[in-house]
Specification:
With 101 residues, the protein is mainly α. The protein is 65% helix and 0% strand. It contains two helices and no strands.
Length: 101
């Protein structure tokens, strides 16, 4: 009977240690999850701010201003437009356009 009681006592103590360990792991994982969710919210907020800045940087007025200042570009006017024509050499009529086998 004493052996059975000692085995049961050892099982209860092992079960108690396992329960404490499981609760500790659960709390540790919960805090890690909470930190990860907080970081995800922070990154989402930063992403939204960057999207707003991106839209602000890509406005047509700003692009035109940068093109004029940094690239020395100017609007197109008919007075300064140059037209380029490309002359393709004509193919002789005797040539067969299909490839040979």
């Amino acid at each position: 009977m004493i052996r059975l009681n000692l085995v049961l006592l050892a099982a209860v103590i092992a079960s108690a240690f396992y329960l404490v360990h499981t609760q500790y792991e659960s709390r540790r994982l919960y805090t890690a999850l909470d930190r990860s969710q907080a970081q995800a919210r922070k990154l989402e907020s930063e992403h939204e701010q960057l999207q707003v800045q991106k839209r602000a940087q890509a406005t047509p007025a700003r692009v035109q201003l940068l093109a004029a200042r940094q690239l020395q570009m100017r609007p197109v006017t008919p007075g300064i437009t140059q037209y380029v024509t490309v002359f393709e050499p004509s193919q002789p009529a005797a040539t067969n356009p299909t490839p040979e086998r």
